[in-house]
Automatic annotation (TrEMBL):
Domain of life where this protein originates: Bacteria
Taxonomic classification: Bacteria, Pseudomonadati, Bacteroidota, Flavobacteriia, Flavobacteriales
This protein's name: Alpha/beta hydrolase
Xref: Pfam families: Abhydrolase_1, Abhydrolase_4
Domain Peptidase S33 tripeptidyl aminopeptidase-like C-terminal stretches: 225-283
Protein keywords: Hydrolase
Domain AB hydrolase-1: 86-179
Length: 285
């Protein structure tokens, strides 16, 4: 297990004005607060590219590509010149350069990486998005940039990678880091952070299922894992405040060819830059 003397395990706090807004909406009507929660759930926060990611941002060849299935466009990043390509998929409110430390080490090994800003993230346009947009983007990017030897996904990106493999993404291996698992658990956690009743979580699920004509549980990572034959490395931190470690353990249990690597003290994001984690990924690849 790896340890880190910093304390990255503090969960991101929901701003107080949003919690108050939810309470006001809930007081007015259940339908209103459900709609408001749905809007919050599907709206990522766009962060400015931090200095540590600027080198990858500057050195990447960036293009905008159209994803016909969802009628949206995404910005892609080709980092390196090798024909041996690895796909990198960021998580919610992330960016295509977020896995830069992993990308840098892959370049040293003779790979190039392809990553992207998911819809409504980074330099890609839009205000709202859902996981199916991530999956559709991955599958279209494979058509235009593939084949990929490996796919690496963080958080929602991990769930999306597993679902994309289930839906036809052809890779030899996959790595998922801090991946979510059961969609209902994610909805429950989200509504709890908003200090809303459990009933709203169930209403949220019903709203999304009616709007998108899908069963939300079909996107749960463990279900995709059950159908995957290739080797998958599951990395999760014991102290992850955003996605409980039980998610990674449960996903691993469903895989036919999985390896589980549990870290300690790295939280949800610092895990991406930890040298022991990167070493484990490189050894796996």
């Amino acid at each position: 297990m790896t340890k880190n003397i910093t304390n990255p395990t503090k969960s991101l706090k929901i701003p107080q004005f949003i919690i108050i807004s939810c309470k006001i909406c809930a007081f007015i009507s259940t339908k209103l607060v459900t709609s408001y929660a749905a809007k919050l759930f599907t709206t990522p926060i766009k962060h400015k590219v931090p200095k540590r990611e600027l080198e990858m941002d500057i050195k990447s060849i960036q293009n905008k590509i159209y994803i016909p299935k969802i009628d949206k466009s995404v910005v892609t990043y080709k980092y390196g010149e090798s024909d041996r390509k690895i796909l990198l998929v960021h998580g919610w409110s992330g960016r295509g350069t977020q896995l830069f430390k992993i990308a840098d080490e892959l370049l040293k090994l003779g790979y190039s990486t392809i990553s992207f800003d998911a819809p409504a993230h980074g330099k890609s346009k839009g205000k709202t998005t859902i996981m199916s947009d991530f999956i559709a983007s991955i599958l279209e990017i494979e058509k235009q940039y593939g084949p990929f030897e490996v796919a690496i996904g963080h958080s929602l990106g991990g769930m999306s990678v597993l679902n994309a493999i289930k839906d036809g993404l052809q890779v030899n291996k996959a790595v998922i880091i801090g991946s979510g698992d059961i969609v209902q658990d994610i909805l429950d956690d989200f509504t709890a952070k908003l200090r809303l009743k459990q009933e709203i979580s169930e209403r949220l699920r019903n709203l999304f299922e009616e709007k998108y004509q899908v069963k939300m549980d079909d996107f749960s990572a463990y279900k995709a894992a059950q159908k995957i034959q290739i080797p998958v490395l599951v990395i999760h931190d014991k102290d992850d405040p955003e996605v409980p470690v039980k998610a990674g353990i449960h996903i691993h249990e469903q895989l036919k060819n999985g390896i589980l690597y549990i870290t300690e003290g790295l939280g949800h994001r610092k895990i991406l830059g930890n040298q022991n984690v990167i070493k484990k990924i490189l050894e796996f690849i």
